[in-house]
Amino acid sequence: MEAPTRRRRSRLLTWRGQVSAVFFTVVAAAIIASLAGSLIAARQIIEEQGEDNALAIARAAASDPRYAGWVIAGPPDPDGPVQVAAEQLRKRTEALYVVVTDDRGRRYSHPNSELIGQVVSTDPSVPLSGQDTDGLEQGTLGWSARGKVPLRDQAGRVVGSISVGIPVSAVSELQRGLGLVMLGVGAVAVAASLLVTVWQTRRLHLITHGLELEEMADLLREHAAVLGGALEGVVAVDATGLVRLANEVVQQHLGAEVRVGRPVVESGLPTALVALLGPAGRDWPEAGRLLVMNGRILLVRRITVERQGHDLGVVLVIADRTDLDDLGRELEATRGLTDALRAQAHEYTNRLHVLAGLLHLGHVDEAADYLAQLTGAESWSRGVEDPYLNGILEAKGATASELGVELRIAEATWVEGSLISPLDTITVVGNLLDNAIRAAAGGRRRPAWVDVSLLGDGDDLVVHVIDSGDGVPPGREVEVFAGGWTTKGRDREAHGLGLALARTTARHHGGEVELLAGRGDDHGATFGARLRGALRQVAVRG
Fold first, then answer.
1. Of 6, 148, 284, 483, which is least surrounded by CB within 10 A?
2. Does the keyword field hold Membrane (predicted)?
3. Can you give the residue range of the structural domain that contains 424?
4. For 163, which DSSP code?
5. Does any domain span residue 271?
6. Whole-number Å distance between alpha carbons of 507 and 252
7. Which residues touch 79 (CB under 8 Å, ≥6 apart)?
8. H helix or E strand, kind and range, residue 517
9. By C-alpha distance, which of 465, 362, 450 is closest to 401?
10. How buried is 279 (Cβ within 10 angstroms: 0-12 exposed, 13-18 middle, 19+ buried)?
11. Are 352 and 383 in contact (CB under 8 A)?
12. 3-state secondary structure of 322
């Protein structure tokens, strides 16, 4: 187990190291390139400034008419006025040299007086032709930034030239000073880039939650495989409240398009799921709870996603339990019918035994009275021909009796014919009776009771159920039909689904389930239902 862990950490460190190295290298290379370019540009600027300064000094000297007059007046002289004036100018301007020549290029001044009278070492043809020139050249005193201008007499005739040189050492000193400043700036920039690299690498590590590239690729493949083959709907919401994922299954379950990338409240999710994704959903049981949406019974589970203590959001897993619930209700209806038939068979057997005993003993009159009593005795099947309805009434009667509630069949009950869709009809009637029985058992009135009337109206079945419970609280008349509403605790996932399921089933057949009265002076809630086309009429024989 240790070897894989070390390999995984090694890969992770290598990946982070590679990202850091690439990021830092790119930033450092950019800084170094910028510094190099800046130094080259600065060197050129400084050299140009030196040349401009040399040219300005030469022009200033050439504008002094004395120099032209002294050159015209006589030959070069180491102690002449040109040498004295040029040396004074050189010292004042801190130039390397100030050289004055005649029209043949002979020096009239030079820092080295021994060179006076000799021809200059560089080509004087440009200034002697009447043009200014500057540049970086090497002469008898070494490299210098120099400027050369023609020397003219009062008539404008070129009689010589003046050359001024700025020492390269001065230019280099400026370059070194600027270079040190730029190197300092570069060092700070590289150090800052290193800090940014470390911060960015750490941030990338946090964003990926410590996953390596291969692990993220595996997650993508698993993600596509799981969602593509999932039979359950999945909705994923990040920590900021944006919907990041909604597969096709969940949109089929909800019957609506879920907009990915939008806030939860704008995503098209039903209100119940929007509330579930908020703080109110933190108390949602881990096993999930059943909700009725889009005419389907959905098991909704809420999963909070965390990694290394960071909240990554919430995932809803939505499974369709409609078919399973249909099977359960069909089984319940069948069991109720079976129990009713078994109870009736047992009761009829007992009655036959009593009747046989009376006749065997010769008590004919008593047997006749007994038969008369049986004829007038109350029966669950009174006025109801369909065996499924009889079965559900028998079963709910037994359930009510166990809870201390009396289930009473109204005198007006009359249903001819049989049910066309027994399962859906039993769903509506059974849920209405279950709701009423629970309300009566939990109410304050005693004795507790439930009255039910069933009436065939053509091929429609009309159902009314009244209980002795405490009724529906004012203002919650609409809420009782929302999936998940109940007056009981939420310790059982199926609580609160009955009325929603009954209404959904009735509407599926064009019918309706309504709350006729929230409460009354001597009773609790009154619910009514009309199931259209629920009965198959029995043909009347002529």
1. 6
2. yes
3. 379-536
4. E
5. yes
6. 20
7. none
8. strand 512-517
9. 450
10. exposed
11. no
12. helix
Instruction: With respect to residue 103, please indicate whether it lies within any of the assigned structural domains.
Output: yes
Rounded to the nearest 10 degrees, how much is the dihedral formed by the CA atoms of 360, 361, 365, 369?
A: -70
| Structural domain includes residue 366 | no
Q: Quote the tokens at residue 134.
A: 């500057």
Angstrom distances, CA of residue 64 to CA of 60, 124, 162, 438? 7, 20, 11, 121
Q: How many domains in the chain?
A: 3
Rounded Cα–Cα distance for residues 210 and 439 (Å): 54
* Beta-sheet pairing, 405-409 with 448-457: parallel
Q: Report phi then psi at 435, rounded to 5.
A: -60, -45
For residue 332, the SS3 value is helix
Q: Tokens for 43, please give them.
A: 């060197």
CA end-to-end distance (rounded Å), the chain: 88
- How many Å apart are CA 138 and CA 140, to the nearest integer? 7
CA–CA distances in Å: residue 204 to residues 156, 211, 212: 75, 10, 11
Higher pLDDT, 290 or 521: 521
Closest by CA to 520, choosing from 432, 451, 430, is 451
Pair of tokens at residue 488: 């009981």
Tens digits of per-residue pLDDT, 29-78?
877 777 777 777 766 776 777 778 888 888 988 888 898 889 888 899 88
Task: Show the tokens assigned to 465.
Answer: 């159920």
CA distance 189 to 183: 10
Q: Return the biggest CA–CA distance within the chain.
A: 182
126 Cα distance to chain centroid: 75
Contact 466, 451 (CB under 8 A): yes
Tell me, what CATH number does 242's domain have? 3.30.450.20
Q: How many residues does the chain have?
A: 542
Residue with tokens 């390269």: 168
On whether both 384 and 527 belong to a single domain, the answer is yes
pLDDT tens, residue by residue, 99-117: 999 988 899 998 888 889 8
Cα 375 from chain centroid?
A: 72
Rounded CA-CA distance 410/523 in Å is 15
Does any domain span residue 420?
yes
* Residues 355-372 pLDDT 10s: 788 788 888 888 788 777
What are the tokens at 514?
Answer: 């309504």
Q: Are residues 20 and 166 in the same domain?
A: yes
φ, ψ for residue 92 (rounded to 5)? -65, -40
Tokens 């021994």 belong to residue: 114
Three-state SS letters, 385-445 = CCHHHHHHHHHHHHHHHHCCEEEEECCCCEECCEECCHHHHHHHHHHHHHHHHHHHHHCCC
Three-state secondary-structure class, residue 74: coil
Q: Say what the pLDDT of residue 449 is.
A: 96
Cβ atoms of 71 and 155 closer than 8 Å: no
Rounded (to 5) percent helix, strand, coil in the chain: 50, 20, 30
| Residues 437-462 pLDDT 10s | 999 999 999 999 999 999 999 999 99
Listed in sequence order, the DSSP H helices in 256-320 are 271-276
